[in-house]
Design goal:
alpha+beta; 5-stranded antiparallel beta sheet; about 45% helix; globular
């Protein structure tokens, strides 16, 4: 038989179990169709991203990674103060719809730089909580006891802008809740004491449990990828968010942008973690030192995104203070990126 009548090959439906409940984004194979109520994000190795709406056929280009994203909404409980686990915020959020004014959507950039193979809801919520706790600890957001209606509105405005600028999510609702009845405070305190008393491996910092399992290669690669992909978008946001009225402020603003551009160039030409020089391997302690500087630079990057959120809400009177804060953050980026380039330590 000539097999004149054959059925066309159909790609099996994608495995998306848990999407919209336990996961925000899951990998999507080429040839699949974007399910209804979801969208796809495709990212190249260089960080360029594009979206496909429901019903579209996924055809990744060479080197592209595809995710299927459920926009939500999602509900979670955040703890704004680490020392007070009984105080909570019940938050309902959703992934932002595409903004035609933006060349790249912020959530798409998050997927390309930090997403990994899949984005679990609990890990994403932990990142939201860490960003909130950092801003409250630094005094950039204020949530005092017995918050008044005006104070709550100011907090909500800053919180909404923080999550949109840093993660590309829209906050639908946010309400204070008492989590004391839902959490075993004694167990939480016991777990913290046990983590502090746990023996640390030789050479590992003794501050947090995560640092005890610090993997220099993985941490360095993740931090440098974030810096490489996110610094151009951050500079574009700062350039558009701040328009100084006087020449002094304009020159200072331009100088800070030039320094950020040089940091971005330094990240793009960063030497390999394991090499002190071409053909000369670097010892393990030198690699550990380099990886720590990379992660500190990524921490300064988080502060810069949070500052951009404040810039978008600030007025002209706050501009000198905001530029002073940006100067500090850029100095930290310069210091850590310069230290990351150094090859200190005996060759392996």
């Amino acid at each position: 038989m000539l097999n004149l009548f054959t059925r066309p090959f159909r790609q099996p439906p994608p495995e998306l179990a848990g999407l919209g409940a336990d996961f925000i984004a899951l990998p999507l194979a080429g040839g699949c169709t974007v399910p209804a109520g979801r969208f796809a994000v495709l990212a190249s190795r260089e960080g360029r991203t594009r979206r496909l709406s429901e019903g579209a056929r996924v055809a990744p280009l060479d080197g592209e990674t595809a995710w299927c994203v459920h926009p939500g909404p999602y509900a979670c409980d955040l703890t704004p103060f680490e020392a007070a686990p009984e105080i909570g915020l019940r938050v309902r959020f959703a992934i932002d719809t595409p903004d035609p004014r933006e060349a790249q959507q912020r959530f798409d950039l998050f997927l390309a730089s930090e997403g990994g193979e899949r984005v679990a809801l609990d890990g994403f919520v932990a990142a939201l909580q860490a960003a909130l706790q950092r801003e409250l600890a630094q005094g950039n957001l204020d949530l005092p006891p017995c918050t008044s209606f005006e104070e709550w509105n100011v907090f909500r405005s800053g919180f909404n802008q923080l999550l949109y600028t840093r993660f590309g999510v829209m906050v639908d609702d946010c309400l204070p809740v008492d989590l004391g009845a839902a959490r075993d405070l004694a167990a939480l305190l016991s777990a913290r004491l046990a983590a502090q008393a746990a023996p640390q491996p030789a050479g590992a910092p003794a501050t947090t449990p995560r640092q005890a399992v610090f993997d220099p290669g993985r941490e360095d690669a993740q931090a440098l990828r974030r810096l490489f992909l996110e610094l151009p978008g951050l500079m574009c946001g700062i350039r558009l968010a701040v328009l100084p009225d006087d020449c002094v402020g304009f020159r200072r603003h331009q100088a800070l942008l030039r320094r950020l551009d040089l940091v971005s160039l330094s990240v793009g030409t960063m030497p390999a973690l394991a090499l002190a020089a071409p053909g000369r391997p670097l010892a393990a302690d030198g690699q550990l030192r380099r990886a720590r500087h990379s992660r500190r630079a990524a921490g300064a990057l988080d502060e810069a995104w949070a500052l951009l959120a404040r810039m978008k809400l600030g007025d002209a009177a706050m501009l000198p203070m905001l530029l002073e804060e940006l100067d500090r953050i850029v100095a930290n980026l310069e210091c850590d990126c310069a230290a990351r380039r150094e090859a200190v330590g005996e060759p392996a």
